[in-house]
């Protein structure tokens, strides 16, 4: 019988126990250790570099490289030579990785990529320009090359880009004992470094089910795999978006999921450690989008890149600020007659903006986690309106009292209280409806909501305060 | 030889293949299905309820319960009877869970908790009041009770609260073959539902190492566990904060980690599925904190709770808005003489606030991920200042041109351009330094930065624009 175990790549689950010591209490690389490594690299002392960093876990190695001065990074890798684990390059932000890859000869990269898990190799290759990518693939053995090329052909952010393409399969008619014996008699190097389950496939490589290793271990030797396999194993399609894959993992607390093509053929496995990175990146993107920053922005970006990437968002905000100011401009006459209005108007706008941002944050989060849907939209909108009315009344009262005392007449207090109530209700409506509307039109609400929402609260804030004041005090 | 396999609880990795069909394309529970379940619950038709929901995965069951009207939820669980999997209660937000638990008799909860993984049982019990908790624990078998009580005695948010307290252990002198044979001959019910590794412990239960199941499977039958075990397995201390545990998982791409007490005795295992929830919750907390919302806030909160929980943040903002307005108040004379200043001043403040928020977002993110530390702080601060200067110059120019045309004289353009440049540099400084300063004093920068930062940009924006204008136009 043919050995049907594909070679699966490693889970880096086995770690040196003392690796934590390279960090200081802030979680940064320990300064003295960093200085020693940098000095060894500068001196070109390969033996010392290998002695200092040779035993590090790939994650620690990646953190160390990122902490080195940019001009020492590629030199460090060259000095490490064949001791360098290219998996470390997947453990840093992609700007640093791209800079390093640009400095390394393509043969070196090809040599390093050859030993990697397919998903790590894809991570390293996917951002390279087409020419370098082709040259590196050319230098790989045909089997590896074809496999990597296939992964790279899947769309960005798809399951196909995340999966490992090597895994263990067995036919359904094998017994548990056969499976265990064959694994035991197989050469170490023909077996994967680490795996949790074997997949049961038919002759056309269609996924029939899986057997977790613990199930295999406690099954009777004579039990057929098809009788102990789990045939309703949850699976994902190879072109599925990675966010959707992450949601499946989270909802069902999975540790791994098989990936199949349109014909239900098994083409790969995605493990939870890659999904953790996806979840982290999605959260990162959402925080940055809400703060008006590109999700690609990293601390290692240049001044020029950062300036340009932040410009568009600020430009949009400038336009909204001019729109808001033009509302102030409509009331120039009133402002001239009563300068207190100019002093107080920003308070109304700002308080409305902050209340609306609270509502918007909740809405954006709930849309991202799918907690907010058509089914509960009405209830949530009503809740926000009531919250707006209550906090609008509370802050109207407080602001009204302070303003009356400050400017010495009660009228201004009444006017600002009414404007505050109006603006907090408007903010609640804007904060809850705008993200949902954008989402309906497939526009990312985290990116675009806040410009619209603050325009609403600025315009309503100025217009209500100055409008009510103009009528109340007869300023027109 | 004594069987040394503890019973480990299940990973819910085996799933019905058709469970996805209860969702519509928005990811909400399919409305017709929901209506049918609700009708069956209202009619008290237990058989129909069980037929509709009996085969659901715990995650889908949790989603279904959360989608039901509040007054049907406990009734649904009572009708499901012994078919109800209490693990479903861990798959919904804690407000809903707490409301349901309050309605269920303590004996029912005790009965349901008995079958759960210890970590799920802790999740359900930890938020109950002391009296209910004691009554439920009392109703459990002594072994379960003692184990749960111990977990509940660990601090909130510690590794001890997350871990499962059941796992498989073996002595180091066993052979791989012995281990496999004993597992195979053991009664199904005395073996865990699912596990990835066996832990090697000494007679005092101190953790010596671990053997992953794939290693066990391919080892020679005669190999001693102590020879194939991985003795430098990364571990965490039982009182470690869960955020720190999550960082270890993420940094080293772990799937599980053993938990030890002060004496290095093995007391539990944390698996990645629980850590995914921690990562998600931490990200959620950061997004909400930046938006001025309590991390506890959920869509299911009441109007009154929401209003009160949002009030303090708005109150802080009101104070900062008054501070900013008092700066405007200092220039009342200038405003009176030139009303254009009142119209334009908010633009300078708003643009500075948005630029500062970008910087602050990057800083808060980088502090959370430990990318920003003392080692690179100076470089990052300088980068932000340069970005502030460049975007300040760009937006100074644009705003200056528009303002000159709008109000028909060049002077106002020059003044607003200078003020804009000043405020964007001030915003860059505030945005990058304030989060770091707060972090140094152990104050969560995500929660507190933005109030300070926008105060800086409002005050500097108004003061620079009106100050320069007063001097330039001789308004004093």
Topology:
The structure is a homodimer of 476-residue chains.
Chain A: H1 31-42, H2 46-53, H3 58-67, H4 70-80, H5 94-103, H6 106-114, H7 118-125, H8 130-138, H9 142-153, H10 159-162, E1 169-170, H11 176-185, E2 197-201, E3 207-212, H12 213-218, H13 225-228, E4 236-237, H14 242-252, E5 256-260, E6 266-271, H15 272-290, H16 303-330, H17 332-337, H18 340-368, H19 374-407, H20 410-440, H21 445-472
Parallel strand pairs in A: 1-2, 4-5
Antiparallel strand pairs in A: 2-3, 5-6
Q: What is the string of SSEs of chain A from the N terminus onward?
A: HHHHHHHHHHEHEEHHEHEEHHHHHHH
Percent of residues in helices of chain A: 55-70%
Q: Average pLDDT across residues of chain A?
A: 88
How much of the sequence lies in strands of chain A comes to: 5-15%
C-alpha Rg of chain A, in Å? 30 Å
Strand segment count of chain A: 6
CATH C-level label of the largest domain in chain A: Mainly Alpha
Record the strand order, biggest sheet of chain A: 1-2-3
| Residue windows where pLDDT falls under 50 for at least 5 positions of chain A | 1-20
- CATH topology category name of the largest domain in chain A: Tetracycline Repressor, domain 2
Main sheet makeup of chain A: 3 strands, mixed
Number of helices of chain A: 21
First-residue to last-residue Cα separation of chain A = 96 Å
Task: Tell me the domain tally of chain A.
Answer: 3
Give the CATH architecture of the largest domain in chain A: Orthogonal Bundle
- What would CATH call the homologous superfamily of the largest domain in chain A? SLC41 divalent cation transporters, integral membrane domain
Oligomer: homodimer
Largest interface: A-B, 131 and 130 residues
Backbone structural class of chain A: mainly alpha
Shape, principal axes of CA atoms of chain A: elongated
Membrane topology (chains A, B): Multi-pass membrane protein
Keywords (chains A, B): CBS domain, Cell membrane, Magnesium, Membrane, Metal-binding, Transmembrane, Transmembrane helix, Transport
Main location (chains A, B): membrane
Function (chains A, B): Acts as a magnesium transporter.
